[in-house]
Amino acid sequence: MSHITNAIEGKQLSVNGLTHSYGGQNAIDDISFEINAGEIVALLGPSGCGKSTVLRAIAGLIQPKSGGIHLGGQDLAHVSARSRGIGMVFQNYALFPHLTVAENIAYPLACQQVPREQRRARVEEMLSLVQLKGYGNRLPRELSGGQQQRVAVARAIAGRPSLLLLDEPFGALDRALRFDLQVELLHLQKTLGITTLIVTHDQEEAQSLASRLVLMNKGHVEQIDTPMAVYDRPKTLFVNTFIGQANVLRGTISQLGAEATVIALADGATLNLPRRLSFTIGSQVTITFRPEEVRLSSEPGENRLGARLTVSVPLGPTLVHDLVLADGTNLRASEVRGPSTFIPDTGTQLFAEIDTARCHVFPVEPEVSQQS
Ligand SMILES: Nc1ncnc2c1ncn2[C@@H]1O[C@H](COP(=O)(O)OP(=O)(O)OP(=O)(O)O)[C@@H](O)[C@H]1O
């Protein structure tokens, strides 16, 4: 395995101002991001936001309307898809059904005119790398979905690409198998040091695999950050609600102090934030907070909103409470469940205390003024 490590040299990928449309409207607009050599980055966003389009442009399968793509400093504008040195894995395996596993893996090597002996050795290497030693003579249909996807990965890296593109590679697999393959892929990627871009709409997959996330929405990039930064410091309401769960309330800025902001909610309640926000008094805002930032209490008090408990559900180690505020807004709270955690009765009138130090506040029309 050691000489593979030396052989694959991940290169830096740089995407600048990538724009593409299939008809009138842009599918992607001014997309820019970088992936360091050997890094694994996830392109994450809802269905139709343009992820696959970005991937196709990088692979050379479509010619973007504008923007630049550089791999290891080389401009790919006039480099054919074949000559880009990029390996790809798609959701639906795309193995050749009439070729054996070994022939599938050897296929790109044959295209590169790698001599037969070397090809055979590389196929063996790849098979052991993806833990399919001894499966070389099988046909794809004689393998499970997870095994087929491992073959697809082996085929993608057999030609020693300097960039690996994965488009929803585990989308067709069940949850447990997905997790196993994610762990394997991460191990493989680290061992080989291959620069990797994975497209997914599964936030858990993105968070567990990637060192950084590129969050896309409606053809734009909303935020590029580490998984933790995206969760803790979302730049937009979209990112905040797309990654993890968030409670969303509407309010109006009613007081601004040196180190405090008071927000009035619809039903007359207020939230006091221990910092000055850069809004003017009277601004309409959206306040968000995670379920784990809500604590239930039976007493009223500061930052406590009257709420009726609709249901409490124990989910393994956590207890999730769904509540409804007086104005009908739903609220979710969660807490770590211990042996003596008290579970209140459904319908109980309680107070939901919001940890306002950890709230996020966004302008009410966040989609109008997207920043890059
Ligand atoms: N070949 C095509 N012709 C016309 N429109 C297309 C084509 N491919 C994609 N689109 C449109 O471009 C937009 C972006 O599509 P894209 O496939 O890149 O999104 P995606 O984020 O990968 O979605 P998904 O997660 O559902 O695969 C969508 O509105 C889609 O309908």
TrEMBL record:
Gene3D superfamilies xref list: 2.40.50.100, Nucleic acid-binding proteins, P-loop containing nucleotide triphosphate hydrolases
Transmembrane spans: none
PROSITE patterns tied to this protein: ABC_TRANSPORTER_1, ABC_TRANSPORTER_2
Pfam families registered for this protein in UniProt: ABC_tran (PF00005), TOBE_2 (PF08402)
InterPro entries xrefs: AAA+_ATPase, ABC_SmlMolc_Importer, ABC_transporter-like_ATP-bd, ABC_transporter-like_CS, Mo/tungstate-bd_C_term_dom, NA-bd_OB-fold, P-loop_NTPase, Transp-assoc_OB_typ2
Highest taxon of the lineage: Bacteria
Domain ABC transporter: from-to ranges: 13-243
Gene Ontology BP term (one): quaternary ammonium group transport
Keywords: ATP-binding, Nucleotide-binding, Transport
Keyword NAD among record annotations: no
GO cellular component: ATP-binding cassette (ABC) transporter complex
GO molecular function annotations of the record: ATP binding; ATP hydrolysis activity; transmembrane transporter activity
Family classification: Belongs to the ABC transporter superfamily.
Protein name (record): Putative spermidine/putrescine transport system ATP-binding protein
Classification of source organism: Bacteria, Pseudomonadati, Pseudomonadota, Alphaproteobacteria, Hyphomicrobiales
